[in-house]
């Protein structure tokens, strides 16, 4: 941070459902499922960073290229003295592109992890998928602008997108605007290889859930008897991730026994892909209208700038 700049930290994190409760509940359902938020222990987060660099996983580098190409235009929409509020930060390279282009941003508010540079950094620890309030923000009162890159929005069900954007609108307040990265619909071959990379990073990321279960819940899962399974479901417009049982087997987890039939699937994630008008329609239901949408030349990925009203 520059001299004279400040860092403040606010912990608004709720007591979370434990990993154990989430796993036992999810494996008790029919069909079995495990929520994708469980992917992100330290090892899962490191694997996700590696996925972002995989040649088949075009999302991260394409979004970064769009932000680089249009940074000045985006900064023009945002204007001076903004307070930039990033939900689920962690992609420091992307926000840095934006911060470098912005005209005297007043505050950077990463919700979930601390960050450097700027007049003021107000780090907030919160579960941003639920409503929460921001602490008073310092600096000259410029626009509040939300930044939600990475197509993380694609991991929400469409109804949850509307809910989330509605909460975000309240958080930003009247006149608040947002910049959001959204993966586009495209040739299923491109999507299938993005989620089934040759180096096996997506597989390791998905199956890390079983590694966590063995380590944290005293599980006896034989990793050789499960497999990563991911494909683009064109009718639903989403990539679906599953862990597939390769045998009829009984597994012990946290003192309980779970039966898996051969070929039985545990659903672990959906990653929705939206054509530009589809995403705009969802945003409109949360009270946002599109100011501008940028894409890369191959139209793999989109970055939407939205305003309320
Ligand atoms: C975090 N999120 C946007 C990733 C995605 O592409 O949906 C998570 C992921 N799942 C498998 N690979 C990456």
What does this entry look like structurally?
The chain has an eight-stranded mixed β-sheet with strand order 1-4-3-2-5-6-13-12, sandwiched between helices. It is α/β, with parallel strands linked by helices and 309 residues long. It is globular and about 60 Å long. Helices cover 33% and strands 27% of the residues. The two termini are 35 Å apart. The protein is built from eight helices and 13 strands. It has helices spanning 19-28, 42-52, 58-78, 92-101, 158-172, 188-194, 201-217, 276-285; strands spanning 6-11, 83-87, 107-111, 120-125, 144-148, 177-183, 226-233, 238-245, 249-253, 256-260, 265-272, 288-295, 301-308. 35% of the residues are buried. Helix 2 runs antiparallel to helix 7 and helix 3 (58-78) packs parallel to helix 4 (92-101). Strand 5, helix 5 and strand 6 form a beta-alpha-beta unit. Residues 113-118 have low confidence and may be disordered. N,N-dimethyl-L-histidine (AVI) binds at residues 51, 59, 150-152, 154-155, 195, 202, 205, 241, 269, 271.
